[in-house]
Design the sequence.
């Protein structure tokens, strides 16, 4: 008996099959949390709160209740829900409707956590003087493909913060892209979908590219995710121009000062009290 084309394709590597191009975080949205299941979001949120304390922001649950926090590039809301549970009034902003649909499904199952989610390009989202705190994590800044857009983003965040507001964001650095852990190959299946992803880094262009393929209803879709690596001094210059004061730059999930060899840097920025 001759095997059908469908059964033959089911055994193949997805990168051996023809694929239809799809924008990042569209077809992969439904399996995103499964792909990221090893990420400890609770510990990450705890770390963010520790960093915000360095800028003089209160960290006890009773003290932060009702403070307004914006989670830029919130994705499916993993950090947003944790921050909401801690007492923040959270607004999650993301440009992917599909990722926000996943966040909305989670929201429908929650009884106590009530962040609100908005679909918007984070680089020009302004809610004038609304937020006490803002965060942007998990390489999100690296998805912005030029320094002018990053500059606009920092200015938008600055305008959205109240005087004395604090902004914590992270950036993946070149050491992370050069490390073996970043150049991964991952295969899996979830909710009846098969997926594969692989990554490569171009040190000349300073671009880290991840290819994600998802097989859905017998068709293969490919998303190409490009992350742009920026120098430490470049980021500092851009957020200083926006008006931010740097309180601390923490390297690699520690409370130690970051440097160019750090794989991931979390910046703790402050808006002046009288701005």
Sequence:
């Amino acid at each position: 008996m001759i095997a059908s084309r469908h059964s033959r394709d089911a055994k193949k590597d997805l990168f051996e099959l023809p694929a239809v191009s799809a924008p990042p975080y569209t077809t992969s949205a439904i399996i995103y949390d499964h792909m990221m299941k090893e990420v400890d979001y609770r510990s990450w949120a705890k770390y963010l709160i520790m960093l915000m304390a360095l800028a003089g922001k209160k960290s006890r649950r009773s003290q932060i209740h009702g403070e307004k926090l914006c989670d830029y590039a919130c994705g499916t809301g993993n950090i947003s829900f944790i921050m909401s549970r801690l007492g923040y009034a959270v607004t999650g902003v993301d440009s992917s409707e599909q990722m926000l649909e996943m966040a909305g499904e989670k929201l429908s199952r929650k009884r106590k956590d009530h962040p609100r989610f908005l679909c918007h390009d984070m680089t020009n989202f302004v809610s004038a003087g609304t937020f006490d705190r803002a965060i942007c994590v998990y390489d999100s800044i690296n998805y912005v493909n030029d320094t002018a857009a990053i500059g606009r983003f920092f200015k938008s965040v600055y305008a959205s913060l109240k005087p004395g507001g604090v902004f914590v964001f992270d950036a993946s650095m070149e050491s992370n892209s050069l490390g073996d852990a970043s150049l991964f190959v991952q295969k899996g299946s979830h909710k009846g979908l098969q997926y594969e992803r692989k990554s490569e880094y171009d040190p000349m262009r300073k671009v880290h590219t991840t290819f994600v393929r998802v097989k859905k209803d017998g068709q293969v879709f490919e998303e190409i995710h490009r992350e742009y690596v920026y120098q430490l001094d470049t980021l500092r210059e851009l957020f200083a121009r926006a008006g931010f004061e740097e309180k601390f730059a923490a390297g690699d999930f520690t409370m130690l000062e970051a440097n160019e060899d750090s794989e991931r840097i979390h910046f703790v920025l402050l808006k002046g009290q009288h701005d």
Notes: Residues 33-165+232-270 form a domain with the Rossmann fold fold (CATH 3.40.50.150). Confidence is low (pLDDT under 50) at residues 1-10. The chain has nine helices and twelve strands. Residues 194 and 215 are 5 Å apart (CA to CA).
